[in-house]
Amino acid sequence: MKDKWIGYYCKQWERTRKRTIQLIEQSSDEVFGHSPKKQYSFIKQVLHIMEWEIEMFQRAGFNIEHQLNEAEVKSKRQLLDYTLNVTKTTKGYIDDLGDDILNIMIPINTIETPFYEVLLDLIDHEAHHRGQIVSYYRNFDMSPPNYEI
């Protein structure tokens, strides 16, 4: 049953990530460069998704050195490559953990939390920030990508 759960999780996580990747790929220059006053910029929204994922795996004991500063992002291709690299690394760690993924506990606000709960939260977190990005598309009268993946 554990293997099935992990398989189901990975399938949904990969679909979630593909949706984020579509938003990067299909963004116009205006959307990509959008930086509202009281929200993260387009670039920072994507980086924040990746940073939170990296941090959660670091708390689980993985040594992930991927970090990209918003000021360092000079192109859509660079942001996309970074996202794909973090995705590949994360997928590898999930595969390496196998069934152990259900036994790991990590600290969240000083409370030991099952890592599988954190994994579920990562999908919600990504969807939330992807929703912010969709609003940027709409600010420029653009339709966001179709999510039927």
Automatic annotation (TrEMBL):
<dbReference type="InterPro" id="IPR034660">
    <property type="entry name" value="DinB/YfiT-like"/>
</dbReference>
<feature type="domain" description="DinB-like">
    <location>
        <begin position="12"/>
        <end position="133"/>
    </location>
</feature>
<dbReference type="Pfam" id="PF12867">
    <property type="entry name" value="DinB_2"/>
</dbReference>
<dbReference type="InterPro" id="IPR024775">
    <property type="entry name" value="DinB-like"/>
</dbReference>
<protein>
    <submittedName>
        <fullName>Uncharacterized damage-inducible protein DinB (Forms a four-helix bundle)</fullName>
    </submittedName>
</protein>
